[in-house]
From TrEMBL, chain A:
Location(s), subcellular: Cytoplasm
Protein name from the UniProt record: Eukaryotic translation initiation factor 3 subunit C
Family statement drawn from the similarity comment of this UniProt entry: Belongs to the eIF-3 subunit C family.
UniProt feature, compositional bias: Polar residues: 21-30
Keywords, ordered alphabetically: Cytoplasm, Initiation factor, Protein biosynthesis
Extent of Basic and acidic residues compositional bias: 172-184, 244-263
Annotated Acidic residues bias: 11-20, 162-171, 214-239
Region named Disordered: 1-30, 157-285, 856-913
The PCI domain, residue ranges: 645-821
Cellular component terms per the entry's GO annotation: eukaryotic 43S preinitiation complex; eukaryotic 48S preinitiation complex; eukaryotic translation initiation factor 3 complex
UniProtKB/TrEMBL annotation, chain B:
Record-linked HAMAP family: eIF3h
InterPro entries: eIF3h, eIF3h_C, JAMM/MPN+_dom, JAMM_MPN+_peptidase_M67A, MPN
Gene that encodes it: eIF3h
Name recorded for this polypeptide: Eukaryotic translation initiation factor 3 subunit H
Source organism per UniProt: Drosophila navojoa
Cytoplasm recorded as keyword: yes
General function of this protein: Component of the eukaryotic translation initiation factor 3 (eIF-3) complex, which is involved in protein synthesis of a specialized repertoire of mRNAs and, together with other initiation factors, stimulates binding of mRNA and methionyl-tRNAi to the 40S ribosome. The eIF-3 complex specifically targets and initiates translation of a subset of mRNAs involved in cell proliferation.
GO molecular function list: metallopeptidase activity; translation initiation factor activity
């Protein structure tokens, strides 16, 4: 706006041409006239100039239209104007600080007047053409509606009557030029524009003279804008100040070039100028740095205030009421609370208050971190732990303090003996525990960081222990169950070697501290008895089983699993419980393996391993998904479920145990059922490994754990137990897998024993058909097994009808019965099965036909039946033919069977030969 | 069966373009060599037969192998033509009279074989396919079979219609898809002379090799593939059975609809209204797609050949058994004496 005025002043002071051109904003002036002077070189225009030019030109046309009462055109121009104004709005708000340009307001006022005038003039209105009258109505409505937004500005405009005359004058000028409108239209426009521009500074001048008295700042303002600003936007917005100053600045620089004699207060101008000049260069980006919101730390209490319980409480409530608000400085809040605690302690206000403040500090620390998924800062964590422990100590030391979430705010009691405090240490400790897990998950598990974090686990456990003590003193069953579960969850995955020692009688069974198994037993039994939410009980059972399995209490663990029927309804549980279930199963499998229950071990592990992603099932890491990407949301959730590293179960150990037990089961089975058509594989995963190694054209010495197992399986297939045992138990496998077991030596011995036995079985299955009899001692020698063991294995096989043989005691030999079919015979048997199947189906096909036939007979309408048959069957074998065929088929079948028998006889005879 | 026999007689003129195949020793040796060298589990060895037709007898005098299919830079047709042209220059029969293929325990009769033979036979009237069984031959049983498609089979394949209906009208069965043509191996007198001379050079006790009975693996292999084929056929039968059931269901529905229509029509005629024709109702039931029977037929054919092979093998073995028995007896009596 100010620039606009400056332009005006330029055009006015046309006499001093050189000066104008020299001035730094003559480009604007030039531009004003560039429309008709093409030779003037192009200048870059600012958006402001462009918009304003647009606006003024439209205003001009409106004025022209009004003169000749061309209402439809006035309407369309008005619409253009509003549109142009909305376009210019951003510029205006930037440059003019949101104040509507004066010329615009003027135009609106004139338009309104014009409309009112025309509207009032009923006579004239009647004479208007239909088109005009219609447009007038619309225009009036539109203007009225539009003007509402500018009511204030308009009112202010109308308050300045002194401008009216100027306008009149300008208009008169324009009118003159209008008269010879037939001439160059552009010239006319320019003339009018010039006239109008010219009038403005005059107005400004008059305004200035009026406003001089106001104050120092506003005396050089051209309009009342600054006044209104100070009125309406008196709120101290720095930004505003800045803008205003900016405006000032511009104005002053522009004013430099104004005619000096017109200025009465030039002296002041100069001062401004000098001051602002320096800053002129950085005009655009001139900004004050907003200083940090340094709020003075509010004084806790008045110096001389008597500090007593209600006062401290009030303060506490005051601090806490800011909680959760956006502006609240959370760090400050924590500091304040600490200060408050110190004050309370200084003045000896008693433990209840102290406890209350402690509790509030805890929640404030929890509040500090706004994102739930991210762990808290380390210093806060340390603080939190400390505060939590001291609070619990206070609570435990003062049995007359009752802290409970069921206590209502208004029933809190701090003064007399049974103190009541509202608050829930249980929730706090649960949150604390969760935060700890988050912290752990944040660390790289292989760094020292993790170890140092993990050291806090002891403190967490101690804190939980404190809370347990508290709730054992005063807590209902539900709360006790919850806190017990927390304790269990910190206990169940930890191995206590003392338990095993005690079991073996190396340590006295009683006395000293209870072992972890006993503690676990106690906690879990309480939960079993008292818990009424299913979830806690389920988790307790799972943890209990896990713990038992860990300490080789195979039978207790197994019985618990079987009694709880968890397998049936675990699918309905929440993910974290299912993860716990998977972990439990994995550990149970390992336990079964250690306890020489190979079959059970396999059963436990098969569900986990068959999917091929035990890592995910045990929540020990995310696998990249091929089919569909996880959304960020889902990934976050899944990450939250992950187990911290120190609780992981070694996957390689798990897989190895699974594969080895699968091998011990599968290889003898394969050998026993070589020709069985209905043979099913026991373990798919193991089979796949075996297959893939068989497919390789060149098999090198085994490298990985899997290759070792596969190589061992191959050795076992031909009964070579020595090679098999070497593949399973060697240095490489020891470091990789077996050493991970507690008492690994025992496990290895067990393994070798099993390998011997199963190899012996495999050997008997595979090679029994080449023996007529085998001596047991030589077998025992071969497999380095004691005689009775071999004897028992063979007897078992005979009893299970796996081996067709009998034992000859005096000679200590196994005599083969040789009743198993030879390979060809087995094939022939299989073939017979297949052929019977085929014949059955064929029979069915003919039964269908037969059925049709009877139906057709019943229908009585032979012709149609015939047609239908032909249509649908596509092949109508006549009755006779069918019979033939039937018979032939039978013959064929007979033939097949004959052939079969023939073959078998033949084969036998050949073999006999 | 009698019917079919009669038809055979009728078609004799067209069918008896060739009565037997006479194969030169050279060609046989070349084929065997090629098949043993190049056939594996995965791919088959194939080649072209060259010869002449003389009086209902196809004389195969020479052959050459086709290049392995893996090489794409080679134009197979060009290759064949060049080979034949060059053979012609050295005065060898250059008429293309068929092709040969290696096979594994009688797994020869397949859809692919049927297709190729169809193309051969439609372009060269008297062409045959000779199938050489590598596995069985390596066990001591020379297995060389010549096959031709029967005219019905050609007709059927030309129509491309494999519904039971088409099978019925063309009277094609599994036994009448392929016609086996006897093969005679003929050597030149000079070769025969050399053979008999070699025979005399052979020491006397080495001549019992033909009595070898340790060939159970042949039987096993046959059984295995037989089992496979039977399985396939079983699948086909199940499929057909399902189809039948669906058709039956549709039939009953249609019948019900027709009955309903008849009742309605009766009412209408009593009222004097025009009746609705049955076709409207029949239109609602679209005929179901009939399962193709070609694979089933081919599988049956294979089973048939397998059975034949087994029977042949067994009878041979039995014969051997008896021969050895009598030989043994003779030996024993000799020793006693």
């Amino acid at each position: 706006m100010s620039r606009f005025f400056a332009n005006g002043s330029d055009s006015e002071s046309e006499s001093s041409e050189e000066e104008v051109q020299a001035s730094n904003f003559n480009k604007a002036t030039n531009f004003q006239f560039s429309d008709d002077e093409e030779e003037v070189k192009r200048v870059v225009r600012s958006t402001k100039e462009k918009r304003y030019e647009n606006l003024t030109s439209i205003i001009k046309t409106i004025r022209n239209h009004k003169k000749i009462k061309d209402i439809p055109n006035t309407l369309s121009s008005f619409e253009d104007l509003t549109r142009a104004y909305t376009k210019a709005l951003p510029v205006i708000s930037k440059e003019e600080n949101g104040i509507t340009p004066r010329f615009y307001i003027r135009c609106l006022a004139e338009l309104e007047d014009f409309i009112n005038e025309v509207w009032e003039d009923r006579e004239g209105r009647k004479n208007l053409s239909k088109n005009n009258a219609k447009s007038l109505g619309t225009l009036r409505q539109k203007v009225r509606k539009y003007i509402k937004d500018f009511e204030e500005d308009l009112a202010r405009f109308r308050e300045a009557p002194d401008q009216e005359s100027d306008v009149e004058e300008g208009e008169g000028e324009a009118h003159e030029s209008d008269a010879d409108r037939a001439g160059a239209d552009s010239d006319d426009g320019v003339g009018a524009g010039a006239g109008k521009l010219a009038e403005l500074p005059k107005a400004a001048k008059s305004v200035t003279t009026k406003a001089v008295a106001d104050d120092d700042d506003s005396d050089d303002s051209i309009d009342w804008d600054s006044d209104t600003e100070s009125e309406t936007e008196s709120s101290e917005d720095e930004n505003l100040y800045q803008n205003m100053r900016e405006r000032f600045l511009k104005r002053t620089t522009e004013k430099e070039d104004k005619d000096d004699d017109k200025r009465k207060d030039k002296r002041k101008e100069q001062k401004h100028k000098v001051r602002k000049r320096a800053e002129d260069d950085e005009d655009g980006e001139w900004e004050t740095v907003v200083k940090g919101n340094v709020v003075e730390k509010p004084k806790m209490f008045e110096k001389d205030a008597e500090i007593d319980i209600p006062l401290v409480l009030a303060k506490l409530i005051e601090i806490m009421s800011a909680r959760g608000k956006k502006r609240t400085d959370r760090r400050l809040q924590i500091d304040l609370l600490f200060e408050l605690r110190d004050i309370a302690e200084q003045h000896d206000l008693g433990t209840p208050i102290s406890v209350k403040i402690h509790f509030n500090i805890i929640s404030a620390i929890f509040d500090y971190n706004q994102k739930i998924s991210e762990p808290m800062k380390l210093e806060h964590w340390a603080l939190l732990l400390e505060v939590m422990q001291s609070m619990m100590k206070l609570l435990l030391a003062n049995p007359d303090i009752i802290m409970n979430e069921s206590v209502a705010e208004e029933h809190e009691e701090y003064v007399t003996a049974p103190y009541y405090i509202r608050g829930c240490p249980l929730a706090a400790v649960e949150r604390l525990d969760d935060e700890f897990t988050k912290l752990l998950k944040e660390c790289d598990p292989h760094s020292n960081d993790y170890v140092s974090r993990l050291k806090d686990e002891i403190n967490v456990v101690k804190t939980i222990e404190l809370v347990v003590q508290y709730f054992e003193r005063c807590g209902n069953n539900n709360e006790r169950c919850r806190i017990y579960l927390r304790k269990i969850e910190h206990l169940y995955y930890k191995f206590d070697p003392e338990v095993l020692k005690r079991k073996r009688g190396e340590l006295p069974a009683t006395g000293s501290a209870p072992s972890s198994v006993e503690v676990m037993d106690k906690l879990c039994k309480f939960i079993y008895a008292k818990d009424d939410t299913d979830r806690i009980r389920t988790r307790a059972i799972l943890a209990h089983i896990y713990h038992h399995a860990m300490h080789d209490n195979w039978f207790q663990a197994r019985d618990l699993v079987l009694m709880s029927h968890l397998q049936d309804n675990i699918d309905a549980a929440d993910p974290s419980t299912r993860i716990l279930y998977n972990r439990m199963m994995a550990n149970l499998g390992l336990c079964a393996f250690r306890q020489e229950n190979i079959k059970d071990a396999h059963h436990c592990l098969v569900d986990l391993m068959v999917t091929g992603k035990p890592k995910e099932l045990l929540a020990q890491g995310l696998l990249p998904q091929r089919q569909h990407e996880r959304s960020a949301e889902q990934e976050k959730i899944e990450k939250q479920r992950q187990m911290p590293f120190h609780m992981h179960i070694n996957l390689e150990l798990l897989e190895c145990v699974y594969l080895v037990s699968a091998m011990l089961l599968e290889i003898p089975y394969i050998a026993a059922h070589e020709f069985d058509a209905r043979r099913r594989m026991i373990s798919k995963t193991f089979y796949q490994q075996l297959r893939s190694s068989e497919r390789q054209s060149l098999v090198g010495p085994p490298e990985s754990m899997r290759e070792h197992v596969v190589a061992a399986a191959k050795a076992m297939r031909c009964g070579n137990w020595q090679a098999c045992a070497n593949f399973i138990v060697n240095k490489k496998m020891n470091t990789k897998v077996w050493d991970l077991f507690y008492e690994s030596e025992r496990v290895r011995e067990m393994l070798v024993k099993f390998i011997k036995e199963e190899s012996l079985r495999t050997y008997l299955f595979t090679y029994s058909n080449v023996y007529t009899s085998i001596s047991i001692p030589s077998l025992a020698q071969m497999y380095e097994l004691p005689l009775p063991k071999v004897h028992s294995i063979i007897s078992k096989m005979i009893i299970n009808e796996e081996l067709m043989a009998s034992l000859d005691d005096p000679s200590e030999t196994v005599v083969m019965h040789r009743s198993e079919p030879s390979r060809l015979q087995a094939l022939a048997m299989q073939f017979v099965d297949k052929v019977t199947n085929l014949v059955d189906v064929n029979e069915k096909v003919f039964d269908m036909k037969q059925g049709n036939f009877f139906q057709r007979g019943n229908m009585g309408n032979r012709d149609r039946g015939y047609n239908r048959n032909q249509n649908n069957q596509g092949g109508n074998w006549g009755g006779q033919r069918r019979d033939n065929r039937n018979q032939r088929n039978r013959n064929q079948r007979g033939h097949h069977k004959q052939q079969q028998q023939q073959q078998q006889q033949q084969v036998q005879t050949i073999e006999e030969e | 069966m009698a019917n079919r026999g009669g038809r055979h007689a009728r078609n004799e003129d067209s069918e008896n373009t060739i009565n037997y195949v006479q194969c030169d020793g050279l060609a046989v040796m070349k084929m065997i060599k090629h098949c043993h060298e190049e056939s594996s589990n995965m791919d088959l060895a194939q080649g072209a037969l060259l010869g002449l037709v003389v009086d209902k007898c196809l004389e195969i005098t020479n052959c050459f192998p086709f290049p392995k299919s893996g090489d794409e830079t080679m134009d197979e047709e060009m290759y064949q033509l060049t080979v034949m042209r060059r053979l012609r220059r050295v005065n060898v029969d250059h008429l293309h009279v068929g092709w040969y293929q290696s096979s594994d325990v009688g797994n020869s009769l397949s859809l692919a074989l049927l297709e190729s033979q169809y193309h051969y036979q439609t372009s060269i009237e008297e062409s045959v396919v000779v199938v050489y069984d590598t596995q069985k031959s390596s066990r001591g049983f020379l297995c060389l079979k010549a096959y031709r498609l029967t005219p019905q089979a050609i007709q059927m394949y030309k129509d491309g219609d494999f519904t039971p209906e088409a099978f019925r009208t063309l009277k094609v069965g599994y036994e009448s898809l392929f016609a086996e043509i006897p093969i005679v191996i003929k050597n030149s007198p000079l070769t025969n002379i050399m053979m008999s001379e070699l025979n005399e050079l052979l020491p006397e006790d080495k001549g019992h090799n033909f009595l070898d009975l340790g060939t159970a693996s042949v039987l096993e292999n046959h059984m295995r593939s037989l089992i496979e084929r039977v399985d396939e056929l079983y699948q086909e039968a199940v499929r057909y059975n399902k189809y039948q059931q669906v058709v039956f269901k549709q039939d009953t529905e249609k019948h019900r609809a027709l009955a309903k229509l008849a009742a309605e029509n009766a009412v209408r005629t009593s009222k004097g209204e025009p009746t609705v024709s049955e076709e409207e109702v029949i239109k609602q039931f679209r005929p179901l797609p009939v399962p193709a029977r070609l694979t089933a037929t081919i599988t049956s054919g294979q089973i048939n050949t397998h059975a034949q092979h087994i029977a042949q093998f067994c009878s041979q073995s039995l014969a051997k058994l008896f021969i050895t028995e009598s030989l043994q007896n003779a030996k024993e009596t000799k020793e006693i004496k």
